[in-house]
Amino acid sequence: MSDEQLPVSGDEPTPAGRLTSQSIRSFVLRQGRMSEAQHRFLDEMMPKVGLPFRPEPVDLAQVFGRKAPHIVEIGFGMGQATAQIAQARPDDDFVGIEVHAPGVGSLCKLIDEGGISNLRIVQHDAVEVLRDMIPEASLAGVHIYFPDPWPKKRHHKRRLVQGPFVKLIASRLAPGGYLHCATDWEEYAQQMLEVLSAEPQLANTAEGFAPKPDYRPLTKFENRGIKLGHGVWDVVFRKV
Description:
Rossmann fold, alpha/beta, seven-stranded mixed β-sheet, 33% helix, two-stranded antiparallel ribbon
């Protein structure tokens, strides 16, 4: 997740357990500078690879023109890892969700230059996309990589990975589908582990933290942190 896309949370879910547009939001939209190339690719490619938000379930098999496992990435930042994963897994289809226009333009550029056909982009709030567009029990996986850690204790309520949102994600996973989170903040990693462990629809694939799956590439941000001695923690749970 980019620094420009910041997760926040608000009210508790409704008594029926349904998230409303006011209960949790996956971002606070901030303006960011866009390069001419990002503007150009955003304008040229989104009509081709963009999936417009609409408050009704979408048939992803129809969108991609084939039946394949569907994986959603929430907050793809500038999209480098997203593009690499899609290229490395041509038999899977990916939907990247991001509100940050420079990041969307950047991923559009990578899709065009790499000839990537198994990746679509939704430029909208991830909570509403999951809640309204993604049918229940339809996803093979969900990726949340390096969401904003909100390190100050008084800001922890703004973190993306919290019980109500994890419950929503779990409801969209098919049996055996996975939720993969990664962070370089140990305290946030512990919270992720606790929150996912508390969701009865999910089961941990490891004894605590998981080894980094081969499909998740090392980002420039992550490499820089590793060189500085920072740790990185992966959490991988599956739908039971």
